[in-house]
Amino acid sequence: MFEHILVPIDGSSLSALALPVAAEMARCHRSTVTLLYVVPPLPVIYGEFAYAVNDVETGVRANAEGQRLLEDARTALGLPDVRLLCLQDGDPRIAQAIADVAAEQRCSLVVMGTHGRSGLDHFFLGSVAEGVVRRVGVPVLLVREPKPAAAGKGAADPPKLGV
C-alpha cells in the first residue's frame, strides 16, 4: 500500500521518534524510504540595512550538518533501501518544501514528528506538520512525544474503575 515513505528529519528528538515508526511501516509494506533534510533558510540580519546572510561557508556548514543527520538517521532506521535527500535550494517555507519533495518523489506516505502544540504556542510558532498535512496529497502519519505519566501513577498502572 505504501510503496515509498518520506521521512523529514531536522535533528530534533521528535524526528528521532518518527524513525522507528517509519522503519516498522517500511518493513510491513516493503517500502522504499527517503529521508529528507531541508536546509533552513539563511537568517536575515537587521540593522541600518536588512540583508540575508548568504555566505558560502554558512551554506556549506548547514549542508554538511544535514548530511550528517541523514547518515545518522539511516543508521538508526536499519533498513537496506534508504535514500538520502538534503534539500538546500527548495521553497524557504519548510512545509512547502516537504510537500514538493513528496510530490516529486511520488511518495505514498509521509511520517514525521510533531510537537502537538495548541493555543498560543501554535498561533505564534506555527506547525510544520500542519503545513505538510494541508499541502500533500498523501497520508501523513504524525508521531507525537509521549505524554508524561500523571504524578503518583506509573505509566504501566491500569486505570481504576468504579468503587
TrEMBL record:
Q: Which residues cross the membrane?
A: none
* Keywords assigned by UniProt, alphabetized: ATP-binding, Nucleotide-binding
| Residue ranges of domain UspA in the record | 1-144
Does the keyword section mention ATP-binding? Answer: yes
Q: Which CDD domains match?
A: USP-like (cd00293)
Q: Per its UniProt record, what Gene3D superfamilies does this chain match?
A: HUPs (3.40.50.620)
Key word Transcription regulation present in the record?
no
Protein name as it appears in the record: Universal stress protein
Q: What species does this protein belong to? A: Deinococcus aerolatus
